Amino acid sequence: MKLRSHLPKLSLIAFAALLIPAKAQASAGVVLEPNDFVGISFWLISMALVASTAFFFLETQRVSGKWKTSLTVSGLVTLVAAVHYFYMREVWVTTHDTPTVYRYIDWLITVPLLMVEFFLILSAITKVPVGVFWRLLIGTLVMLVGGYVGEAGYVPALPAFIVGMLGWAYILFEIFFGEASRINAHQSPPAVKTAFNLMRLIVTFGWAIYPIGYFVGYLTGMSHDDSMKGLNIVYNLADVLNKIAFGVIIWAAAVNETDAHAK
Ligand SMILES: *C/C=C(C)/C=C/C=C(C)/C=C/C1=C(C)CCCC1(C)C
């Protein structure tokens, strides 16, 4: 397709746009302190996200047609996250407060995209009923809306947490025991099976970090300042696993499958 051949150019334009908030910050005189490790982790990960975005977009050129969408979506996840990291790091460096709203806006876009990847990698090899897509999406929204109304204080923290946990449990059920998992077990070639299995481990263990963070931050009575430092570093590291490594796993399956059919 035409659009695909323009992707590298489009990604360059996107990066140019990314640099604007970074420049605004420098001119406002806000400087990253060498002992601000939370701030440093925001910087490191925003750069890793930018580099991953370039990588995923450029690698769409290398894989066969039906895998291009999966890689494009991986690149969109890291692109959207990179932009949010620029803003979150500015909030942190200037106020040392936790950028909850930006995190949730980021999650609201990136988590459904990550979920859709399960649907996309199966769709690259077989026909998948669209119900799989909708169930994964609905589980995601219940989880995130539950978490947000709790963190923002619209609903008491505990009931909101329980609703969020139910959304996550529903997602886990679909990918371990539901239709998606059955399609994977019966129809996927080895490279896709490996990717699917690793991806659902990430959704189990990598994703568990966020509700644990919520629990420690809101349900243990720990002081706000203490819990927020730890919480932000933990969330930042979690994003490396859940966004970048997740994309790399899909990339590996795409390259393997492309090479297998080229022979
Ligand atoms: C890239 C960002 C990702 C993968 C974010 C994932 C976020 C979650 C899995 C959040 C889960 C939560 C619950 C399971 C219960 C309610 C509180 C949340 C929203 C933190």
3D structure, described in words:
The structure is a single chain. The chain is mainly α and 263 residues long. The chain has one domain (2-258): Rhodopsin 7-helix transmembrane proteins (Rhopdopsin 7-helix transmembrane proteins), CATH 1.20.1070.10. Helices cover 85% and strands 0% of the residues. The chain contains ten helices and no strands. Helix 4 packs antiparallel against helix 10 (224-262) and helix 6 packs antiparallel against helix 7 (157-176). It is globular and about 60 Å long. The mean pLDDT is 90. Bound molecules: retinal. The site of retinal has 19 residues, from helix 5, helix 6, helix 7, helix 9 and helix 10.
